[in-house]
Amino acid sequence: MKQEGDWSMLINQLMVDKAEALIPELVASIAEPQAVVEIVADDAAFQGWRVEQAEDQDWKERVLGKGDHIVLDFGNHLVGYVSLKVKPVGSPPDAPLKLKLTFGEMPCEIAESFESYDGWLSSSWLQEETIFVDVLPAEIKLPRRYTFRFIKIDVLDTSKKYNVSFEQVECKAVTSGDSSRIAPLPDSLSNELAVMDKIAIKTLQDCMQSVFEDGPKRDRRLWIGDLRLQAQANYLTFNNLDLVKRCLYLFAGMRLEDGAVGACVFEKPHAHVDDTRLYDYALFFVACLYDYYVESKDMATLLELWPVAMEQIEIAVQRLDEQGIVRDDETWWSFIDWHPELNKQAPTQGVLIYCLKQGLELARMVGESDKQKYIETQIERTSRAAVTQLWDEERGFFVSGSKRQISWASQIWLVLADVLPVGENAALLDRLFETPPAIGMTTPYMYHHLIEALFSVGSREKAVEQMQAYWGEMIKDGADTFWELYNPEDKKLSPYGSNLINSYCHAWSCTPTYFIRKYLI
Predict the structure, then answer these.
(1) CA–CA separation, 382 and 325 (whole Å)
(2) What is the C-alpha to C-alpha distance for residues 208 and 27, in angstroms, rounded to an integer?
(3) CA distances in angstroms from 74 to 23, 32, 100, 150, 196, listed in the order given
(4) 205: pLDDT confidence band, cut at 50, 70 and 90?
(5) Contact 381, 324 (CB under 8 A)
(6) Are 329 and 318 spatial neighbours (Cβ–Cβ below 8 Å)?
(7) Is the pLDDT of residue 1 over 80?
(8) What is the mean pLDDT of residues 286-291?
(9) Residue 3 pLDDT > 50, yes or no?
(10) 125 — alpha (psi -120 to 50), left (phi > 0) or beta?
(11) 249 pLDDT more than 70
């Protein structure tokens, strides 16, 4: 055991070293601005802002003085390092140049003042730089990595004797996702789905750095809930098995004090686990390992990481009450979805059963009969409890918590857990759409599981319809990568108090490519 700051964790240095040996080489490309634009207020546009091309597109010849600005559109979402070449125009500079650079994934980040931000996440995630340039001409290389499509350059001050112009503005975009590995889609696929696939792949690619990041703007960390979905999409696109393997070893090599897998991992200044514990995320280590082995057939890695997966099952079972139901308390919180009123008992029961079943397959693969019997007992116990304790026959839905809440998440996860016969699962999903519960879904993460549940019961047309109604609407609202959350009824929705801090390229939203390539071609 080793102390790290104010928390403690278990470290297997050999596993961490294996992870660090798998740090990928990033693929780099150079991108330049494609247009000069103006961000215009428009109540009919997404989040109230419309992008218009400026009349004067020749930004390299434009002369800017104190109080002037220019907004450059790179034409697509980028993750990388920005450099600028700036030169004086007029008399020799007799004072430093003061610039402000604002980076935005979306127009709102360019148009709305960051000083107005009042969310509960740190404002340091808002992407801006104030730069003083003492000697001109100059080449400025920003040391931080930025995630953006738009850059606004404000000339805050020069002097009365000179103005400036920019000879070059470019981004060295980086990713560990090699596009040459992606198989083309068949011509028979509709254009709408082909566009959706392309944007989903771009979302995944920009989140593929030295780990699978959850969002390259924010939080720029390895979260295991995101990893599970990213890896599934990755297997059918970039197929970077080593990056998945690296992430698995990071989670396995640095765990919380009781052996639980942490919810997320930081890479810098050295690899270390965060002290966030999520019940469902720890269980997803089992699912991630199962999916990895199915794709890679890497028995050596399975054998080394299997004890960690088994430990997650044993820790999770400790939370069951005498009836075999996950206790409804906040001791070990599950994520499930961002909905503020969601009771998480029933969906967490579904996650547990789902991961127990994958754990059973892993136990069979490694040939541990005693673990097989233990897991089989837990599957039977938790599945029976879900049907006898959580199923409300009269209402035709699973209920959750002491108030017997009905939510989309509870039905979806218990369908994925497969505790009812297939026909009854299909009927349950039909009822969801016929009489939708008030406690709905708020993230692409939860929508992913709805789509997966629909495919699992053979409702292919309904699954595609829901993909088009959700991710398709994001495209209509201007997405060039898919977003952290999206509510067609509240397009400024944010769990953090401000849409300025939302991530507009987010890992858990990349999965349309997984559905298209697994189920539709």
Answers:
(1) 6
(2) 10
(3) 29, 6, 18, 6, 20
(4) very high
(5) yes
(6) no
(7) no
(8) 98
(9) no
(10) alpha
(11) yes
Q: What is the mean pLDDT of residues 364-384?
A: 98
Please give the Cα distance from 190 to 413 (Å, whole number).
Answer: 30
Measured distance CA(227)–CA(229) in Å, rounded: 6
Amino acid at site 117: Y
Percent of the chain whose predicted confidence (pLDDT) is above 90 = 96
Contact 286, 312 (CB under 8 A): yes
CA distances from 336 to 60, 162, 437 (A): 48, 56, 16
The tokens for 2 are 């080793």
Structure confidence at residue 8 (pLDDT): 63
Buried b (16+ CB within 10 A) or exposed e, 466-487: bbbebbbebbeebbbbbbbbbe
* Sheet strands (E) in 232-321: 254-256, 264-266, 272-273
As a 3-state breakdown, the chain gives helix, strand, coil percent values, each rounded to 5, of 40, 20, 35
Identify the band that residue 2 occupies on the pLDDT scale cut at 50, 70 and 90.
very low
Both tokens assigned to 365: 């693969």
Q: Which residue has the tokens 């280590």?
A: 285
3-state secondary structure of 312: helix
Six token digits for residue 344: 């998480």
At residue 331, does pLDDT exceed 90? Answer: no
Spatial neighbors of 261 by CB under 8 A, at least 6 apart, are: 224, 251, 252, 255, 281, 282, 285, 308, 312
- Separation of alpha carbons 400 and 342, rounded Å: 9
With beta carbons less than 8 A apart as the criterion, state whether 353 and 347 touch: no
> How far from 304 is each of 15, 21, 120, 289, CA to CA, in Å?
9, 16, 40, 11
More confident residue, 55 or 374: 374
DSSP string, 478-509: T-SS--S---TT-TT--TTS-GGGS-SS-GGG
Q: Kindly tell me the sign of the dihedral angle through the C-alpha atoms of 423, 424, 429, 433.
A: positive
Distance CA 425, CA 432 (A): 11
- Verify cis geometry, omega within 30 degrees of 0, for the bond prior to 444: no
SS3 call for 274: coil
Task: Show the DSSP H helices in 128-190 as ranges.
Answer: none
